[in-house]
Structure formats: structure tokens, C-alpha cells
Design goal:
This protein has 68 residues and is mainly α. The chain has 3 helices and no strands.
Length: 68
């Protein structure tokens, strides 16, 4: 019996597309902003986040290694 990839199945059934890295990053930034707002309201502290995709980190690491 063949395994069914549920993501691929849902995409074909409902015409959904996989999220791109930029879409995932945007969603993560939104969630971080909401969390930071809650922390400021509840505790009076300001929280800052930087959100990177794995590809961005790999690219930065490659650039650092090239400059050594």
C-alpha cells in the first residue's frame, strides 16, 4: 500500500498551496508581535523578536564562513 502525503492530498483536494518561507516568516512575525504586545500590557516589559527563515540563516552562515 502506498503512503499518502496528507499535505499533498489536501493541496490537490482543496487547491491549497504549501506556505512559502516568506508566508511562514510573516505569520511568525505576526505571532511574535501579538506576544510582545501581551507582555507589555501584562508585565510592562518590552520584548523584541527577530524572525529568520532557515534559508536566511544558512546564507548568513555561508557569508561569514567565506569572509574568514
Amino acid at each position: 500500500m502506498e503512503k499518502v502525503d496528507m499535505v499533498d492530498f489536501a493541496e490537490s483536494l482543496f487547491s491549497f498551496e504549501k506556505e512559502t518561507d516568506n508566508q511562514k516568516k510573516s505569520r511568525a512575525e505576526f505571532e511574535c508581535a501579538n506576544f510582545a504586545k501581551k507582555m507589555e500590557q501584562q508585565f510592562g516589559v518590552v520584548v523584541f523578536f527577530n524572525v529568520y527563515t532557515q534559508d536566511e540563516l544558512n546564507k548568513q552562515a555561508g557569508e561569514i564562513n567565506e569572509n574568514k
